[in-house]
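sorry for the late reply, my laptop died twice this morning and i had to redo everyting from scratch. anyway the thing you sent over, i finally got around to it. pasting the sequence first so we're on the same page, its 368 residues, then the predicted structure underneath. double check i copied it right bc i was rushing
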Amino acid sequence: MVAAFAPTPQHTGMSLVADRVSHAFDMNDGKLQVLDNVSLTVEPGEFVALLGPSGCGKSTFLRLVTGLELPAEGSLEVDGGPITGPDPSRIIVFQDPTLYPWRTVYQNVALGLQARGILKTHRSRVDQALSLVGLPEFANVYPHQLSGGMAQRVALARALVNDPRMLLLDEPLSNLDASLRQEMKIEIVQLWQRKGFTALLVTHDVEEALMMANRVLVLQARGILKTHRSRVDQALSLVGLPEFANVYPQHLSVRIAERVAVARALVNDPRMLLLDEPLGKLDSLTRLAMQTEIVQLWQRKGFTALLVTHDVEEALMMANRVLVCSPRPARIVAELKVDLDYPRHRGDPRMAEMRREILHHLGLEDSW
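ok and here's the structure:
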């Protein structure tokens, strides 16, 4: 791929600003929230990857940027103006090439220009686009005669023929084999470098995001978009480990490693934190310190906490209510309200009384 478009004066990428964008789909049993309070800025000419698991709202965000849909809440602007509908300056390339089988490669690529009524005066653009993706000799071939990689290149040419200032890539390589996928990554990056458009790539492939983009934004399964760095820094600060950001796990003590695990949960800003015996493998001193730290985080952040433990004292030191379960099959046999102020003291007579009561419900009163 050595050919290029004829230079376009002052041809640069466009900026994108999303301000508190939320979006939901109407379902039979209510609304499905897919984007929640998304704010981000993309500079002209940047290559930004939106990374996240399937179904988290990545493609929905791209549809909003194309103008195919309008956000339920918030605003989207390009170059300082609102997005009110589709525009040829913002073109999307989908997972599936979606070529019309009755049209030749040339005719498929020319479709956008034809729809805009400018094909006659811009016919040379079709040849330039095919040359740009390395397919000038396939102009008169039909889609069924193309390999998967070639079909995807045609789809890319169909986008590039419009000379877009923003190229939106909705997992365009996901249906290709590994070797072809690698080749197309390089080609798309080279096109971006050559043309200077802004690129927004949706992918669930971490390596692909890192190989192609110069900035990665992470989209969580609940649909909240953010640059990961600021939230990670906040989580590390919450657990007192900002200076350990670049340290590898093998260099950490067990206590610090457990703090990292807590930070990994807190980075999602949970409204409910589920703790499945997180301190069970720690030595007694480290365990006591971590009990205090988790309680302090809970007090500071205000999330709901549900702790599973087999340690009676741990339950009483940390929780404000304790549910006691029977042996399998489990059922709740007792509920105790722990109406003690924090920080709690193990020598408190009321603590000893509740410990005795719990052991009684567990059939272990003789061990007291």
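The radius of gyration is 28 Å.
thats about all i looked at so far, will dig more tmrw
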